[in-house]
Amino acid sequence: MTSKIVVLAFGALIAGAMPSFADDTFFAEQKPTEYLAKDRLLGANVHDKDGKIIGDIEDLVVDSDNKIVGVIIGVGGLLGVGEKKVAVSLPSLGIEAAGNKINVTMPSATKEALTAAPAYKRANPPIGWLQRAADKSDEIRDKSGPAYEEAKKAAKEAYESAKEAAGPAIEKAKEEAREALDKAKSAAQPAEPPKAN
Question: How many domains does the chain contain in total?
Fold first, then answer.
């Protein structure tokens, strides 16, 4: 009985780890009731209960189950200088899509509450531009696959061919330069004065 339970548990684990491409895996278009966070939520102003802007949404906080649990709001400061970042749970916000706009409110927000709120601390440092560039390079290489390898091989062959073709010309130029240098050295030698009898 125990071995049967272990086999069933292992099977369930494997089935959960295997990707399944059911009909709901891919979708071709955005529904009228959906919006993209990058287009409308990130950067949106957050208003207090009186309609005053208290900050803007700078990022989303996602948990280990890939669920959005909160947002990072930049508050205070001027044009990002002196700004403090605070994390706010998603249920504390009122998010309403109206046409092409998003209205975000935080009814419980007061200047005192935002000042007293702890600054958000990251667990890991942000990914720098250099790492992003390396990741993008890997992505391009992976997407291009065989085309990248073929281009690399063709470039190497072209380089070797050009190097081989240029070899005799380089040697000829070196020889001509040596001869010109020797002539210049002899011309630069002072003439010996005539010998007196």
Answer: 2
